[in-house]
Amino acid sequence: MERSNLTRYLKEIKEKLYQGLKIPSEEDPSSKDYRTYRLSSKEKREYYLAAFAFCIVIGMLFYDSIPAGLLLLCISPYFEDRYADHLREKREENMLGEFKDALYSISASIAAGRQLPRAIEDAASSIGMFIGESSILYPELLDITKRYKQQNASIEMLLSDLGERSGIEEIKLFASSCSICRRCGGDLEEVCLKSAYILIEKIEYGREARAVLAEKKIDTLIMLIMPAAVLFFLNISSYSYIKPLYGSLAGRILMTAALILITIAVLWSLKIMRLEL
Q1: Backbone dihedral region of 185: left (phi > 0), alpha (psi from -120 to 50 degrees) or beta?
Q2: Which residues contact 97 (CB under 8 A, 6 or more apart)?
Q3: CA-based angle 265:270:272, to the nearest 5?
Q4: pLDDT in tens, 94-124
Q5: Is 220 exposed, middle or buried (CB count within 10 Å of its CB: 0-12, 13-18, 19+)?
Q6: Residue 18 and residue 12: Cα distance in Å, rounded?
Q7: First CA to last CA distance, the chain
Q8: What own/partner pairs with CB < 8 Å and gap ≥ 24 does 224-233 have?
Q9: DSSP three-state, residue 241
């Protein structure tokens, strides 16, 4: 029995020593910059496969030629950055939604009499319970709690750091209000509670505005798809009617001009529909 206890004790010591010597991972939340997005190998493969299929379809519709579609594939690296920006904005939107949930939890904890560090710890537990490991904000809140306890770091500075790395204005405002209150000697919990209520309303307003804009995006997408849909229908039903557009120089010039105008319309519509709140 004593030998078994000794073996378990030595095993625990070995695990603690390993954890103490463990090299920090590159995935440390406090070193991650959310203002940029780097496509993973899987995301790049998915992007270029989709770009290949799309260019082949465009080549067949506008030029009746697969080589023309392969030639269009040369411009796909230009749109790779736009695809990365789209994924970054999507991640930012998800992170903002999680921050709203965290604000609900923080405000409830503060209203129950807890201080801000404990309220953030409760928010991390709440997000981890309802969202799980797929959460973006969960490891960040855990890291803030850990650094506050182990390194005695300022909770306001930790929140400010998260706001800068995330690029989300609401997180920056919340951290700024806490920091100003601390410097001026005000009631930190009361200020955090009021700030949380104001920011929750701001996030809700932004979500409603994006929902309205999403409906307009669908309408715009339908209008942009219509020219390609008409070409597809004519290719199936009356190929002889549009064959001169594929077989003559003037026809190819006309189709190229149409493709350029459609591309400009797509880029212009995407620029118009960027919502800044």
Answers
A1: left
A2: 203, 207
A3: 95
A4: 999 999 999 998 888 888 888 888 888 899 8
A5: middle
A6: 10
A7: 67
A8: 224/262, 224/265, 224/266, 224/269, 227/258, 227/262, 228/58, 228/61, 228/262, 231/61, 231/62, 232/61
A9: helix
How far is Cα 144 from Cα 127, in angstroms, rounded to an integer?
14
248: which DSSP letter?
A: S
Residue 276 per-residue DSSP state = -
Residue 128 identity: G
**pLDDT for the residue 13:** 43
Contact 139, 128 (CB under 8 A): no
DSSP 23-37: PPPTT-GGG--TTS-
188's tokens: 């930190």
174 touches 199 (CB < 8 A): yes
Residues in Cβ contact with 128 at an 8 Å cutoff, skipping those fewer than 6 apart: 135, 138, 142
Listed residue (89, 100, 85) closest to 213, CA to CA? 89
pLDDT one-digit tens code per residue, 16-57: 433 433 333 445 666 788 988 999 999 999 999 999 999 999
SS3 assignment, position 170? helix
**Contact predicate 204/196, CB 8 Å:** no
Provide the token pair at 100. Answer: 């709203």
Q: DSSP assignment of 223-239, as one string?
A: HHHHHHHHHHHHHHH-H
Q: How distant, in Å, are the alpha carbons of 128, 163, 172, 177, 223 from that of 116?
A: 18, 16, 16, 13, 50
The number of residues making up the chain comes to 277
Instruction: Give the tokens for residue 154.
Output: 């300022």
State pTM to two decimals: 0.76
| Whole-number Å distance between alpha carbons of 193 and 175 | 12
